[in-house]
Amino acid sequence: MQPTAPAVKSASWDPAAVHTVDATGSFTRVDLVGDFYNGLLGGGIGNLQGKNLVLTFTDSTVRGVISASLAVHRESPINFANYQQLGVVTNTPQPVVNNGVLVELAGRSVWRVTGTSHLSRLTVGALARVVGPGGGAPAMTVDGVSTPITPGSTYSGAIAITV
Prior knowledge:
Elements: E1 23-28, E2 31-33, E3 36-40, E4 53-58, E5 61-64, E6 66-73, E7 89-93, E8 101-106, E9 110-113, E10 117-124, E11 129-131, E12 139-142, E13 145-146, E14 153-162
Parallel strand pairs: 1-4, 2-5, 3-6, 4-8, 5-9, 8-10, 9-11
Antiparallel strand pairs: 6-7, 10-14, 12-13, 12-14
């Protein structure tokens, strides 16, 4: 059955740190179009303390949402008859719980944000940019405080980027 209770924050998991169990991706000199989600099912995560998504873009362009999300199975319950539906989920961006999203924009990378994105750490290199759909700066809050996105900076906490 699809969990219905909200996920519970683990006291021992740091969603802004890189851990050996994290999912990682590094992209160099590519143009990407699409969304990156670190999905979390409601109801907690059992014995797993957490799992972060760590993405590094170097001299690349990425256009899309990069966010922690709530993952909901399209079919529930999953059983032997429909086991192939296990990984078929709908992701809805939501603040980080135990599913941190760490993004590093290195070199001349550009992230063209297309929708609300929730991160736990954002590093914007000195030559990198974060832009909204019209080319202007998207709005960002860190721990609820409006914060400009400045090249050469790293931000940690409850990060929300909106367009």
